[in-house]
Design a protein that fits this description.
Elements: H1 5-19, H2 30-43, E1 49-55, E2 58-64, E3 67-72, H3 78-89, E4 96-101, E5 110-111, E6 114-120
Parallel strand pairs: 3-4, 4-6
Antiparallel strand pairs: 1-2, 2-3, 5-6
Length: about 130
């Protein structure tokens, strides 16, 4: 069952605000970034499932209610990440998406009809590039 637009917007805004508080040093691995995100979500009181199974053969890094979070180190290849996010957007549990990256990648505001936000760590205070 899909959430109404207002509820989706509030849940998305709360999750994005929490992730924008990340202060990430240069991280050796993606799982290190996952650990920082887990800590941030926990501190903000946002419940989540890590490595959430959306459908057979399709897992997203985090699912916070209806908000899916995917993480990518470095600068992800735009076409590849768009295809991946499109697949996630087509899954029933996902009402909105957030991509957390170390470097900027330009993406649309919606994908598969669902809101998409990007949190770029190199724009936040504290990342060492």
């Amino acid at each position: 069952m899909e959430m109404d637009e207002r509820m989706i917007g509030e849940e998305l805004a709360r999750t994005v605000a929490a992730l924008r508080k990340l202060r990430a040093p240069l991280l050796p691995g993606e799982m290190d970034l996952h650990r920082l995100i887990e800590e941030r979500l926990t501190e903000e009181g946002i419940p989540f499932n890590h490595e959430a199974r959306l459908q057979p053969g399709c897992r997203i890094d985090f699912l916070c209610g209806g908000v899916g979070i995917e993480t990518k180190r470095g600068r992800p290849e735009r076409g590849k990440i768009l295809r991946q996010l499109q697949r996630y957007a087509g899954c029933e549990p996902v009402d909105a998406l957030i991509l957390v990256t170390e470097r900027t990648v330009l993406l649309p505001d919606r994908i598969g009809g669902k809101p998409l936000r990007t949190v770029c760590l190199n724009r936040l205070w504290g990342i060492a590039l």
